[in-house]
Fold this protein.
Amino acid sequence: MKVKIKQWNGVASWLWVANDENCGICRAPFNGCCPDCKVPGDDCPLVWGQCSHCFHMHCILKWLNSQQVQQQCPMCRQEWKFKEGETS
Amino acid sequence: MFVGGGRTRGAGGMKDGDAVLVPPGLPAAWAAVTAALVSPAVPPSVPDDTISDALALLCEQGLAQYVEGWLLETLQVRLTTDVAPEFWSNLEQPKGDSQEKDRARCLLDAFRTLLLRLEPFLGGLEQLGSWQDEGRGGLVGPGAHGLRERAFSVIRAILLFSPQPVLQKRVLEFYSRTFSVHMSQVGEGLEVEQGAEEADGACVCPGCATPPQLCWCKEALEQLQELSHILSRLQLLGRVSSEAVTSILHRLIEERMEQRCRGEYENSFLADFNEWLEQVLGWLSRVFASEVDEAGTDSVAAKGKPDQPGSAILQRWRCHMHQFFCRIYVNMRIDELFSIIRDFPESIPAIEDLKFCLERTNQRQQLLTSLKSAFETRLLHPGVHTSDIITVYISAIKALRELDPSMVILQVACQPIRKYLRTREDTVRQIVGSLTGDAESSCDLANELSRADPVTLETQDSEDEGSDPDDWTPDPTDALTDKTGSKRRSSDIISLLVSIYGSKDIFIDEYKTVLADRLLHQFNYNTAREIRNVELLKLRFGESIMHYCEVMLKDVADSRRINTNIHEEEAHLPVEEQPSIPLSSMILSSEFWPQLKEEKMELPAVVSKAMEAYTHRFEKLKAMRTLSWKPHLGSVTLDVELEDRTLSNLSVSPIHAAIILHFQDKGTWTLEELSGVLGVSQELVRRKLALWQQHGVVQEEAGGRYSVLETASSKERPERAVMLIDSDEEGDSNTATQSEQREEKLQLFWAYVQAMLTNLESMTLERIHSMLRMFVATGPGVTEMDANELQAFLQKKVRDHQLIVSAGVYRLPKSTQ
């Protein structure tokens, strides 16, 4: 007997490769989107800091903009620096 | 004899006078006056002057007042002793099986005789009246009019004090006959034909139902005229004929309605009936001919409108008949309302007629009660499919909003349907399915949706306010006095259906489920129709609530793009590196899809390798993202090539494909082995194998082994197949069912219940329910949960030994405390 697969339609869900489930700022799941966005994924990407914490990009930008003096990671209070090459 | 009686009374009167003083000439004067009264002759037998003198004398003696009394007394005695018995016996005349025609003549004769006997008195009364009016010889009294009134009261009283049924019977028969004669003459065409047909070829006059040579139609009409004349002369017309006419009309309208309208909803009968009623009025004008004439001349004199045809009496009868008609029509249609609703919109004419008539009779309450019970007995029982109930409900909405624009009937009568639908589990799914044009029969609702008057559920109140205040009408009195206020006015089918559950969230959740199912069943990535549906629903329910559905549709579009992208990339690879199976994927944003059924399954290496490769390319495409496959979901198209035959283009589920792929590597498997490599239960494997057994690819051998049937030699498989077909019918749906989801929500309460019972030891069901309401008021599920549901849930816990119930009180078992 020979089985010939002509077409395999699979189902998968995508997810961020992150070390946490939820965004530390908005508490919404990473796989969802930040409160200001409607569509997850490309339209609401995640960014990683050099401290290895990650957030919704929109969330961390908002946070950084509200910081007057020094820009710190809201989780570990280290100076916030984007991890290069990992933002999409 | 008559005159003699009069004399006796007269003599009596004189005797009274005798005792005091008898002036000369008094007896002569009395005799002259009474003679003139009881036998008025033309020319008068007694000269006018004599009468005047006689009257003057009587007045002088104070006896004039007795003349009047004497005359009435005489009339009364005469009636009781002779006239009335003669009349009744005349009426009974033709005994036994006499002809109808004879009976009619007899009726007329009886009345003729009656008139004949009473005529002298009536003449006398006129005479006396006119004397009184003139005040001849100083005579005073009530005058002609008053006297007539009195005399006719006496006649009516004596004659009809105890009317015998025979009169009623005869009159009824006679009127019915003249009615049919009249109708056959007026409404020639149709009626005549019908009459001829009914008579089965035997030639019969449609009017009098006798052979033509014996036809007495004309005679009957003449008799009718005479009778009506006599009756009106005696002022008995109303008394004698009203009842008969009423019952005839009633019966005829009813008969006609039964014949023409019952079960016939597609034509309006109002115009037809009005025409017919006019014909009937023609007959009535014959029955009441003389009175009509009289009244007619009266009105001519009074109002100067000579050509007013319908006199007051006919006008009154017209109103009566109209009332009869409306009432009978409404009664009939109330009985049939369920069928009328079911036949909507073909039954619109019937609805409009009913609306017209219902406004004229006070039968709304009856209609409501009857419709409600019709729904309950014919619709709301387990034997009716949910989709049928919904269809009838929709028809009812449409029909009743025609019938009663205030929507009160709709709201009250359909309450039971809504309540019942709430208890059916598949209601929402049915509604959603039909709303979005899934089932063939349901384009109705889909159209309704696409009519897209963008009325959202919330803004209905403001819409009401927007209408012209001058158009406002108060609610009918039978309106429910509930808080919803103007909301009840809603006649929008979709809002009504959606509001069955009180909130649109459940509805939208269900729609999400249905949409997910649909998207995961068809992998052609063609979402045009779904996009349209979502857009329409957005108009209804607002953007925000449909947001999840939009993301789902976007996922489909994105998946198609990613697939194309990845396939293009693969095409550039050298042949040996190309994937062994063509794999596409539907990539979901997990947060936005309804919960999918979780099942674990190991796919054959060749497939999982392809998936890995796909994932790898995806990761390259979308940085920092990866895929989590749902191996049990999806669909596979494959060919199975056997030695002597090929099954091509089979569309199967992944687990079927996985099983058959394993058989490719090894010809014979046991259930345990298969269950081992697939990582699913043996039971599931056995069920899934059924498909391949059905196709005759795999057969079961002794010892629970399954092997490939390379040649289709054995023809035993068909019977087998029939047996096995059903075993693969389990859950088609990819998503957790509503009840499963609900179960999960209820599970949330369990923690509360446990905590409560730990603190309070034991509680009744009501107590638990009210506590839950109080504490968990914020959750969406609690408010909708009723005590029954909670009880069912707690019972389940009792069965699982997590709770103990005794004497209606729940407590936790000792061990868990």
